[in-house]
Amino acid sequence: MDQLIQLVEATQPGVECPALNPGDTVRIQLRVIEGEKERLQAFEGVVISDRGAGASKTITVRKISHGVGVERIIPVNSPNIESVTVLKHGKARRSKLFYLRKRTGKAALKVKERKVSEQA
């Protein structure tokens, strides 16, 4: 059974996705189909959760839009993802940042920044 799952996951096309950790601020370009037209929509926010592995991995991204918190669960290997850009690397001591849901204003997106060394 495990071999069958690995075979299916190996054939799944995926977007080259950088390493995403809770606390990172990301911008995800998603393809949106409206009627017969297709356009790109940017969703920028803080990764508050990741779960799963392989082809079934998902991340939860949270942003504040006009004073209202918006969360979106995004499958990492979705064919609707055009690109993923990490804007800031956050330093989080937890794997799930659900406590950000209770915060308001700028504090709702405040996560300490983590220094990342560039490797060539």
Write the layout of secondary structure elements.
Layout: H1 2-11, E1 25-34, E2 37-51, E3 58-65, E4 68-75, E5 81-88
Antiparallel strand pairs: 1-2, 1-5, 2-3, 3-4
Structure characterization notes:
This protein is mainly beta. The protein has a domain at 14-92: SH3 type barrels. 8% of the residues lie in helices and 41% in strands. It contains one helix and five strands; from the N terminus they run αβββββ. A five-stranded antiparallel sheet has the order 4-3-2-1-5, with no helix packed on it. Strand 3 and strand 4 form a beta hairpin. The chain starts with a helix and ends in a 32-residue tail after the last strand.
* Share of helical residues: under 10%
Overall residue-averaged pLDDT value: 85
As residue ranges, the low-confidence spans are none
- Class based on secondary structure composition and strand pairing: mainly beta
- The string of secondary-structure elements, in order, is HEEEEE
The CATH architecture of the domain at 14-92 would be Roll
Radius of gyration: 16 Å
